[in-house]
Design a protein that fits this description.
The chain is α/β, with parallel strands linked by helices. The chain has a domain of 99 residues: Rhodanese-like domain (Oxidized Rhodanese, domain 1, 3-Layer(aba) Sandwich). Helix content is 50%, strand content 8%. α6 links the parallel β4 and β5. The longest helix has 26 residues.
């Protein structure tokens, strides 16, 4: 009798165990964002500069700019025509749909943060998810601001030259004053005045 009860307990425990396994298998879902790279391929991404874009190339390729800084940083200033997708939201369903649509449309996506590290980390993960159309900005937004400041300084107009050359004016004025002083100090000789006497006419005739 005891052996029968023990056998029943083992049997019931076995059913429960396999039931749990079956439930786990049936409820298991595939990850929504499966990696599409092997570990070896992911390692090769490290140090890959083919997807790194310099600021000078921004206007050449027609990238779709994605600013991954937070909304407050974005509001304080961003690159023209950039869309704000905060780094913490990059892997949300709405962001993934957006990236998939851009890839379908043949668009190149350029990520940028405040520096290269902020963008390159996000780029690496998205690349492993199969987005081979994503690039990242080398200098980041900090570098972009620095470049704009340099351009502003270079575009400032040089002070206009005065219409009158004051230096030459004073040189010429000094020469004239010097010549006038020399002329004033030179001795002057008085010319003698000669009077011309008129000759008296001789009287003709008489006693």
């Amino acid at each position: 009798m005891k052996e029968l009860k023990q056998t029943n307990k083992i049997f019931i425990a076995g059913i429960v165990f396999f039931s749990l396994i079956l439930i786990g298998i049936l409820t298991m879902k595939k990850p929504s964002l499966p990696y599409q790279m092997t570990a070896e391929e992911a390692i090769q991404l490290i140090g890959n500069k083919d997807k790194m874009v310099s600021i000078n190339q921004l206007s050449q390729e027609g990238y779709q700019l994605i600013d991954i800084r937070n909304q407050f940083e974005y509001a304080n200033g961003h690159i023209d025509n950039a869309t704000n997708v905060y780094a913490a939201d990059l892997f949300e369903p709405f962001s993934i749909r957006f990236f998939k649509q851009l890839k379908k449309d043949g668009k190149k996506i350029l990520l940028y943060g405040k520096d290269i590290h902020e963008a390159s980390d996000s780029w690496m993960i998205l690349s492993q998810l199969g987005f081979d159309n994503i690039y990242y900005l080398k200098e980041g937004y900090n570098g972009y601001q620095l470049l704009q400041a340099k351009k502003s300084l270079a575009s400032l107009k040089e002070p206009e030259k005065p219409t009158l050359d004051y230096a030459n004016f004073f040189v010429e004025a000094r020469k004239k004053m010097k010549n006038a002083a020399i002329a004033a100090s030179a001795p002057t000789t008085k010319k003698k005045a000669f009077t011309i006497r008129k000759k008296k006419k001789k009287k003709v005739g008489g006693c």
